[in-house]
Amino acid sequence: MTTAPLADRLDGLLFFPVTAFAPDGSVDLAAFRAHVRAGVDAGAAAVFACCGTGEFHALTPEEFRDCVAAAVEETAGRVPVVAGAGYGTALAVHYARLAERAGADGLLAMPPYLVVPDQAGLLRHYARLAAATSLDVIVYQRDNAVLTPDTAVALARTDGVIGLKDGLGDLGLMQRIVSAVRAEGLDLLYFNGLPSAELTGAAYRGIGVTLYSSAVFCFAPDLALAYHRALVSGDDATLDLLVDGFYRPLVELRSRGRGYAVSLVKAAVRRSGQDVGEVRPPLSEPAPEHVDALMRLVERGRALLKGAGA
Fold first, then answer.
1. Angle between helices 61-75 and 29-42 (to 10 degrees)
2. Is 76 exposed, middle or buried (0-12, 13-18, 19+ CB in 10 A)?
3. Transmembrane residues, as ranges (predicted)?
4. Active site residue 87
5. Quick one: pLDDT at residue 175?
6. Of 95, 126, 165, 227, catalytic
7. Cα–Cα distance between 82 and 72 in angstroms, integer?
8. Which residues are CB-contacts of 49 (< 8 A; sequence separation ≥ 6)?
9. Contacts of 39 (CB under 8 A, 6+ apart)
10. Is the sign of the CA dihedral 189, 193, 196, 202 positive or negative?
11. Residue 2: its pLDDT value, please?
């Protein structure tokens, strides 16, 4: 863990590695390390270990600890490592402390397990999580953890909370949150956390949400980086090319199976030459024809970029 504030180090394309499993279903730390190393070498600006794409829900505390420690060792301070933390408050705190001892730089606070809390309950949950360690916390808004602008303002005032990742996709709500926090003279980092964030990258950027997670980076970092360069530089022609020819068809393909936001990504990582194993239950493997279709899409995206000289 470095001494530089996490908020100052999160700038660029964010990598959410899959967690590698061996044929017998156990965690394959060697394969996980290779996957993390490949992502950092390809240009990732941060590693978010054991989060949604990394099947946080399927890991034991010991496996979680070992994977976070492996990610920290592989990055060797080159980029920050942020670890997932979830379930109820007591377990979320437990995972947070495991992450801190493993050397993580921050936490991504997943939605609380099962219950649908009110705003006061959400605020108490995240405040206790932030107070439990010295790690900075990014709150993940989705499913049963949807914030009002007033709650977002309260979180921005909470020591240790530095960001909000949106996996809901309600741009109107996000605009209201950004405006409310800004009007109070407060700061948060904002992240687009939709499963294929690139499809809405330009829209989110228009309301001040400039950071995003890229699942595509796991299996096609060249396409993900080309999109990121185009977004940052304002290259609308390349953005349109990739959205129309790759990202929109990808989202349509992903909608054809439950759990594809994780399982289809992991299958594509395997097809790209990294043996990261299959997903754990309750997720299932994607249909082979859908994986074939995804790999054809990857080749199409690369051909589009080559044809455009991008």
1. 40
2. exposed
3. none
4. no
5. 98
6. 165
7. 9
8. 17, 36, 67, 68, 71, 81, 82, 83, 84, 104
9. 15, 17, 47, 217, 218, 221
10. negative
11. 44
Residue pLDDT, tens place only, 233-266: 999 999 999 999 999 999 999 999 999 999 999 9
- Selected catalytic residue, list 87, 113, 126, 140: 140
C-alpha distances (whole Å) from 26 to each of 18, 103, 199 are 14, 23, 34
Alpha-carbon gap, residue 210 to 208, rounded angstroms: 6
DSSP of 12-70: SPEE-PPPPB-TTSSB-HHHHHHHHHHHHHHT-SEEEETSTTTTGGG--HHHHHHHHHH
- pLDDT tens digit sequence for 20-71: 999 999 999 999 999 999 999 999 999 999 999 999 999 999 999 999 999 9
Active site residue 140: yes
As a whole number of angstroms, the distance between CA 216 and CA 258 comes to: 18
As beta bridge partners, residue 161 has 137
Task: Provide the percentage of residues in the chain whose pLDDT is more than 70.
Answer: 99
Residue 31 corresponds to which amino acid?
A
